[in-house]
Amino acid sequence: MQLSTVLLAVVACATGAVADLHTMAWCVTKGLSISSGKNLQATRDACDYYRRNRFGNEWWDSCPDCIMETNANGPSALVCWSPAEHIGGDQWQDLCIHFGAGDGGAN
């Protein structure tokens, strides 16, 4: 009985990848907070690219609902927004760097 429980736990852990999924993301020049050196052009470019392309078959490998949106901090706080949480942290970071930002932030 104990062996089958352990085996089941091992199989459950090995069957899929775990991703940090986000509703909002932005590209930054330095730091990761939403107010530290935001790179709006890289954010726009990364958001548009993420919406138009598919990188694999996982939920976070495409973002068909990604749009540029103003958050509660006003028009200077534009973010890439995905109401269905399609934004993968690693994918977003790679896109931000590809489009000239220093890093990508998300929540």
Automatic annotation (TrEMBL):
Residues 1-19 form the signal peptide. Keywords: Signal. This is Uncharacterized protein.
